[in-house]
Amino acid sequence: MSGGLRAAWICALVAVCNAACWSILTYAFQAPDEPDHYAYVKQLAETASLPSNGLEQLSGEEELALEGLRYRDVRELPEDPAITSSPEARELHRDLRLAAQEHDTGSASAGVAQSEPPLYYAIEAIPYTLASGDSMLGRLQLMRLTSALLAGVTAMFVFLFAREALPGGPPRVWCAAGLAVALVPLLGFMSGAVNPDALLYAVSAAVFYFLARAFRRGFDRRGALTIGALVAVGLLTKLNFIGLVPGVFLGLVVLTVRAARARGRTAYRLLALALGVALSPVAAYAAVNALSDHPPFGIVSAAVQTLHGSVLSELNYIWQLYLPHIPGTVNDFPGISMLREVWFRGYVGLYGWFDTTFPGWVYTLALLPATAIAVLCARELLRERLALRRRAGELATYAAVAVGLLGLIGADSYHEFPMFDASYAQVRYLLPLLALFGAALALAVRGAGRRFGPVAGAALVVLFLAHDVFSQLLVVGRYYG
Q1: Is 234 part of a structural domain of the chain?
Q2: How many CA atoms lie less than 13 Å away from 238 in the CB half-sphere?
Q3: Domain that residue 429 falls in
Q4: For 42-52, what is each residue's pLDDT tens digit?
Q5: Which of 35, 66, 109, 193 qualifies as a cystine partner to 31, CB 3.0-4.6 A?
Q6: Residue 270 and residue 288: Cα distance in Å, rounded?
Q7: Hey, CA dihedral for 142, 32, 348, 395, is it positive or negative?
């Protein structure tokens, strides 16, 4: 095994262990939408059919578990801890064992999860079925551990992407990026829960890697099939992946134009192959909906049909969701710095149902290392500006992928505005861009120079480890303190 591949596996192992710890520490169903995602898996595993509505009518077994866990009392109420007494725990486990014996076949309702594609839930149906003789909480934990394995895939591809996108070493740069991402608390938290985001992060990181590989080593039939297949998997994983698709397709076009200079029309066959594989699940989905007299693209079609407001007002809203308000335009978020108060604070620490937070001074203190990382990254980008110009097509692809996802999140939030100010302004929705985050961290280590680079890399990993440990302690104190 080569040194680079060994380092990638180490990053994957760290990420899996981290997410497994989060899966144990996070109180049952106190992760975003976890009851709905569990209900989807239960319906699929028990009946081999998909949920048919988005109501909150969960199965009797799941409702019993939520009541016994005091789910609705604990959710979003930091002053209410989880059940901690032995008698309460024994009573809950006894009730759940009895409920399991009744073989509840699930419910056709899966809340907000109902509109999602089925791939992640089909994967989770495997541990659900294997633990069918256990209580519901035992099944939930095994399902969480399955998600934790996906965190390892994410970290591995982040490392590999950094190696492809930033060739020439030194290897410690890629290792620092891979290990830092493996220790990102939000990755561990989300991948330690039952949520399709875990698979979405892994697929997205793989897409970035194979795009970088194609830009560096050339676009061939294997690359076209792989990228197309990954896009298909992403579309079958979660609707959010739609935001990445335009950027990926732009990358395929750029790669095709480059390949055509040497291979002629054969390159365009590669493009057709990649697009055909990528869009095959979309075509099948539209055909099934058309035959059943439903909107061709399901909830996406419904969302487009119910858009409100002008295009300019929507673009203005999306701009302000991430960047400062432009003078002369309507201020949709008066008195709020969205970048700092929503996105930065959300990254530093918002866990559970976004009700578990650090003291205010922690978010202010976190600005210091964040600024240092940004300065070092900018320094390296400035130093390598000539090389960046030669890679304009590749960089435009990555930028388009990021802008597409940001635009989708903003458009979804605008769809519910002004009833909700920024309902989808959640950092977890940005984690499909973890590969770019890892590359930025690698650039920061490079920016420290040859002399201080090893120190900067070690300090970066220690910083992320400390952030992760204190975040886990925060969660422990929230639910069990």
Answers
A1: no
A2: 22
A3: 3-217+317-480
A4: 999 988 888 88
A5: 193
A6: 28
A7: positive
In whole angstroms, what is the distance from residue 377 CA to residue 160 CA? 19
Specify the DSSP element, H or E, that contains 356: strand 356-357
255-260, Cβ contacts within 8 angstroms, sequence gap of 24 or more: 255/211, 255/214, 255/215, 255/219, 255/223, 256/219, 258/219, 258/393, 259/218, 259/219
Among 209, 151, 150, 210, smallest CA distance to 181 is for: 151
Over residues 416-452, the pLDDT tens digits come to 887 777 888 999 999 999 999 999 999 999 999 888 9
- Predicted model pTM: 0.93
Tell me the H-state helices in 323-391.
345-349, 360-365, 367-383, 385-390
Amino acid at 399: A
> What is the C-alpha separation between 353 and 36, in angstroms, rounded?
13
CB 112 within 8 A of CB 3: no
Contacts of 321 (CB under 8 A, 6+ apart): 333, 338, 409, 410, 413, 422, 425
Nearest to 247 by CA among 381, 395, 392, 415: 395
- For 261, residues 6+ apart whose C-beta sits below 8 A from its C-beta are none
Handedness of CA 387, 463, 430, 330 (dihedral sign): negative
Element (H, E) at 187: helix 185-191
| Residue 3 predicted with pLDDT over 70 | no
Report the distance separating Cα 223 and Cα 96, nearest Å: 48
Per the DSSP assignment, residues forming a β-bridge with 53 are: 109
Output the CA–CA distances (angstroms, integers) from residue 415 to 135, 305, 317, in the order listed.
40, 11, 11
Per the domain annotation, does 148 fall within a domain? yes
Token digits of residue 140: 């939930």
Classified as helix, coil or strand, 336 is coil
d(Cα 182, Cα 150) in Å, to the nearest integer?
11
DSSP-derived 3-state class of residue 38: helix
Is 284 a member of any domain? no
What torsion, rounded to 10 degrees, do the Cα atoms 240, 243, 245, 249 define? -170
CA gap 344, 424 in Å, rounded:
15
C-alpha span between 365 and 347 (Å, rounded): 13
Run of H or E including 357: strand 356-357
How many structural domains compose the chain? 1
Angle at 158 between CA 447 and CA 390, to 5 degrees: 55
**Secondary element (H or E) of residue 350:** strand 350-351
Q: Is residue 239 part of a domain?
A: no
